[in-house]
Each structure stands twice: as C-alpha cells, then as structure tokens.
Amino acid sequence: MEHATSASKVLSVDKLTKRYGETMAVENVSFQVARNEIVGLLGPNGAGKTTTINMILGVLEPTSGTIAIHGLDLAKQRSQALQHTNFAAVYAPLPGNLTVRQNLRFFGMIYGVPHLEQRIESLLREFELERFRDTKCGVLSSGEQTRVSLAKAMLNSPDLLLLDEPTASLDPAISQEVRAKIRQFSAHGTVGVLWTSHNMYEVQEVCHRVLFLSHGKILLEGDPKTLPREHGKETLEELFITVAREPLELSRT
Amino acid sequence: MLPSRAGAIFLRQLYLLRGSPARILPLFGWVAIDIVLWGFITRYLNAVSRSGFNFVPAILGAVLLWDFFSRVMQGVTTAFFEDVWSRNFLNVFATPLSIWEYLLGLVLSSIFTSSLGLVVMLVLATAVFGLSFFSYGLMLIPFLLTLFAFGIALGIVASALVLRLGPAAEWFVWPIPALISPFAGVFYPLSILPAWMQVVARVLPPSYVFENMRSVVAGHAGSPAGVAAGGALVVLYIAGACWIFARVYRRAVRTGLIARYSAETVS
C-alpha cells in the first residue's frame, strides 16, 4: 500500500514541538497520514501521544511546527481544517445529561452536517444504537458510550479520524467489533485514521503503519507486522517494552 | 461565523432544560419569590408612608430590573457551567466551533432563560401588585437593553474567570450581582453614597439606569445624556468582556488547559 503521497495525505505534521517550561513534551515530530490508512501512534505513558493528538485537534497550541489537515493549515484556518476531522477518546465521553440523539444532533449542528436527521438515523443503525436513541448517555455502559462516541466521530464523514485509546475500557468482544468498524470505514471510505493504543495485538491487527514515540520524539516507524523483527524482537509488545525501558538501545539499531 | 453553530449551543441548553425540572424551576422560582416579597414590602411602605410617594414603581420596579440583570448574567454563566459540569470542553472545542460562535450560543441561551424570568416577574408585579411599566414610558427600552448588555458582559467575564481559575471559582461567580448592587444605586440615589462609592458607581452602567428610573418615577424627564452614557459604557464592557474571554481562552489553548479541564482547581 502506497502511503501518504502528497495527493492522498489527510494529515501532515511537520517539525511539531511542544515545550512546557523546561519540559519538552513533543520534539520535532513529523509524519503524515494518508486516506484509507490507519496509523498507530504508540509509546509509553508520557511519551507525547495525547499531547500530539491535542495539538492536531486544535486544543493545544504547538510551540513550533505546523499541522495541515486536508491541506489546510490548522493555525491559520482552524475552523475549516477541523471541519475535516473528528475524534473519539476514552477520556472524553459525550455529556451524560443528553440523550444519544440529542448529543448527535448537537455535534451534527456544530459540524454543519447536511441532512442531519438522516445521517443520525444511519449512524444509529450502523452502531446498533437504535434502542438507545432516547437514552441519556450517562446511563449507558462503557461499550455503549464508546459506540456513541464513535458514531459522533463519524457524523461529519471526516477525512481524518483521531482515536485516542478508543477501546481502553471495553471487553475483548466489543473491542473486536470496534476494530472491525474502524477497519471497515478505513477500507471503504476516504478516511485516514490516527490511532493510539496500549494494546499491541490490536495495533498489529488494525494499523497499516506505526510510529513509536519516546520522550516526545519519533523513535521508530514502520509496518507493525515486520517492525519487531527488524529490531530483533519477536512481537510488537516486546518492541513496545524495549521502547519504554531502553529507548537508547533501539535508537542505535 | 456560522449561526447554526451558536444555535447548537442554544439547542443543547433547551434539551437540558426540557429534561430537568431542577434547571427549569430556578429560572422563575427565585424571581417570583423576590417579586412577592418586595411587592408586600412596597405595599406596606405605601400604607405607612404619609408622603404620598408610590413605592411600587420605585422599589418593586427596581427589584424587577435588577433581577432581570442577574438572570441575564446567570443565563450566560449557567450555560457555560454546563460544559464545566459535564467536562465537555474537549468535545466542544476540538470542533470547528469558534469562541465567538460559542459565546453567541451562551448569549442566545441567556436571552431565552432571562426572558422567561422577565415574563413571570412582569405578570406577577403587574397583576398582583399593580406595577405599571407605562409609568417608565419609552425609557424602559434603554433601561432593559442596558441591563441586558451589562448582564451579558458580566456573564462572559465570570465564565472567563472560571475558565482561568478552575471549576471551584464558580463560587466567586454567584455573588457578583450582590457585590455590585450597593454601588449601582438600585434602591437609593447615588448622592447617598460616600464619594469613593459614587466614583465606582459612575463606571457601572446600571447606576445610570436606576438614577433615571427614579427621576422618571418622580415625574421628571429622564436624562438622555445619562442613558447614552450608560449605553456607551455598556458597549465598552461588552468589548472588554469579549477581549478577556478571548485572552483566557488563548491561554488555555497555549497551556493545554482546555484538554484537561477537570481538576478541582487549575490555577
């Protein structure tokens, strides 16, 4: 699969840096995501994954560097750029005091989704949420809430989908369903996905390419199926543990 | 700016009101109690006073106008607090929504909720206590507009305060109208105040409203210059409030506060 050619890229991150005082959270990170591509952003806690995602979502200002979504510079054309993206994160559930349909309508209006009611109905069907349409999100189970978040993330048919540990609180069966849905969207739509996860099995199953972050820098990049062997490891999990514990060893390989 | 995005913020507020008696009741419950309480106080004052002065338009009218201002301010802050309480900033601001669309949505919410309170107060004050707004003449329009705009300005500043200092700063917000009221001359002429309080009063738009209201009730013509001064001041307040909110928001984006706005205090 040819990835991130200039015509097909939906996300282009160039020399992105975020510094908090003396702490460098993200340093000189550059990468791209193409249409129909699922890119895994991996790394131990504190590596800079969520900081990177927050900068791409426009809720955290980079110290330097540029982000272009669908060719639009996020710093200069924030609203237009974010019109082409959407996200779901385990730590950002939708307001629990609104029903599923109210939440989808609210965000649908913010994204200016055309034919909103039809779109909502179609997503309710797609994510098997029809019987919860008038249920307040706060009383749904974790799995159901994740499905609502994913439905919201697909509302505007984004070109770029950011998923920050979307399966973190789900049981294996529901996680598998979620992964299947995302793969399906990626294969049949035009969406590019940036996915963070600590589940290496999941990453190997879903992602076309992975980026390993350590101390705010991209340490490794490649196909999750071949990358471990390229660095003398049996599995992606082993490689992850090495990145977390001995990043210097890998930077020499 | 897309009005539909501001409309989404307003619609969200309607959904929350529709499903929650705990949110609906305060819209008119407290103001109704205020009108009833002050209605009887003014009746009593009329009965014991030998001056022939009618306290209803002077006192009850002032209570109504002040409550209207308070409701406008709280209409903005309460709509903002919904995002604080539901930890929704990341979801809301990681979208194409601009802060101006967001603020417009808060203002639309406030127009709706404060209008409900105003209608209830008008009905009670007129039907039960005989308050006639005709006694204020056309001056009522600039009175209401000035108080409305000042309520919006303070609501935006209060929201910025909570965004800057964290959810616990909510407790600074509720007493703001009470803190301002002694300076605004709601129930007494500004000339009663000590000189330093009069200086403060002169930079508060409501002081011009209440000075003029008393003048009109006393049978004098209102002061167009005073009304204009109040109007000009309130425009400055609105501009200043938007500037403060924008600055606080930009700081929150620079520091990453928007994305992790859930701590009890973030100062």
Describe it.
The complex is a heterodimer of chains A (253) and B (267). Chain A has 253 residues and is α/β, with parallel strands linked by helices. Chain A folds into 2 domains: 1-84 and 159-253, Rossmann fold, CATH 3.40.50.300; 87-157, no CATH class. In chain A, 36% of the residues lie in helices and 25% in strands. In chain A, the strands form 2 sheets. Chain A has a 6-stranded mixed sheet with strand order 6-7-8-3-9-10, with helices on both faces. In chain A, strands 2-1-4-5 form a 4-stranded antiparallel sheet. In chain A, helix 4 crosses helix 5 (142-154). The longest helix of chain A is centred in the C-terminal third of the chain and has 17 residues, at 172-188. Chain B has one domain (3-260). In chain B, 75% of the residues lie in helices and 0% in strands. Chain B contains 11 helices and no strands. Chain B is globular, with a radius of gyration of 20 Å.
